[in-house]
Design brief:
This protein is mainly alpha-helical and about 280 residues long. The protein contains 12 helices and 7 strands. Strand 6 and strand 7 form a beta hairpin. It starts with a strand and ends with a helix. This is Fido domain-containing protein.
Length: about 280
């Protein structure tokens, strides 16, 4: 079932077939991270610890896994905890050093290399989805705040495993893997466009205010104007402030404090109506 995080992120609790995993909890942890701070191997372990009560530890055993794309074939993955820790650190260092390369190349390639390492005994696919969502958001693909990345993944799961198998082989080209993610991200934008049309939000006058109002009404917890600015980098801060004040005047939201540090929340009457 789809749920929403405090940052207005809609998501599907992938892993519903395994009740040991708490995908929303891990996602909530991600929303509390500073987008300006690079991820570390320790952060990745913390995400996994939120994903599963017994998580947070690098895989300590070698694995032989059945191939999902080919019958009666297995994939052997050799690693130990120390080796995995070093490999993940090196991967993240390489990723963050590629400052001149388009994120639509580096983000999927980061995910591919992580799956090659297969750092945890279980939950690696979920970690990949969380990582993809987070890094797309960091690189200004705000669409993942509103459109369910996980449901699009589940709808194209066969393609995911097929391209993962193709591109995990030694010396294989990463193009099929990149193409898979480019198509999936395009699907996110197409869904977002359909939702805007369904909500009758056009490019005409007042459309930006409508977008801001829609974002604010989706917030489950208090937020700051900077959160709205991060969601809509192409809308000026002045217009965002005017939209928030307009909603305040209509008694839809209220503020605690003043200026940029003010914390906004829905008025009690509005909150009661929505529950």
């Amino acid at each position: 079932m789809a749920t929403k995080s405090s940052a207005g992120i809609t998501h599907n609790s992938t892993g519903s077939r395994n009740t040991g995993f708490d995908y929303p909890k891990a996602l909530q942890f991600l929303t509390e991270l500073d987008l300006k701070e690079p991820l570390t191997s320790k952060t990745l372990q913390q995400i996994h610890a939120h994903l599963h009560p017994q998580g947070g530890h690098w895989r300590s055993v070698n694995l032989t896994l059945p191939r999902r794309d080919l019958v009666n074939e297995e994939l052997k993955i050799l690693h130990g905890q120390k080796t995995i820790s070093i490999a993940v650190e090196q991967l993240l260092h390489l990723y963050y050093s590629q400052t001149t390369v388009d994120p639509l190349l580096t983000v999927p390639l980061l995910a591919l290399e992580l799956m090659r390492i297969f750092p945890f005994l279980d939950g690696n696919r979920r970690i990949l989805l969380l990582l993809m969502r987070y890094q797309l958001l960091v690189n200004d693909h705000q669409v993942v705040r509103y459109i369910d990345l996980e449901s699009e993944f589940l709808a194209t799961e066969r393609g995911f495993y097929r391209t993962l198998s193709q591109c995990s082989r030694e010396g294989a080209s990463p193009v099929p893997w990149l193409s898979y993610w480019w198509v999936l991200i395009r699907r996110l934008y197409k869904r977002f466009d359909r939702q805007l049309k369904h909500a009758s939000i056009t490019a005409g006058r007042g459309s930006k205010t409508a977008l801001i109002q829609r974002f604010v009404t989706q917030q489950g917890k208090p937020f700051r104007s900077t959160d709205v600015c991060a969601a809509f980098p192409t809308i000026s801060r002045d217009q965002i402030r005017l939209a928030l004040r307009g909603m305040r005047d209509k008694k839809l939201i209220e503020a605690r404090g003043k200026g940029p540090a003010a914390v906004w929340q829905k008025c009690p009457a509005v909150e009661a109506t929505n529950t």
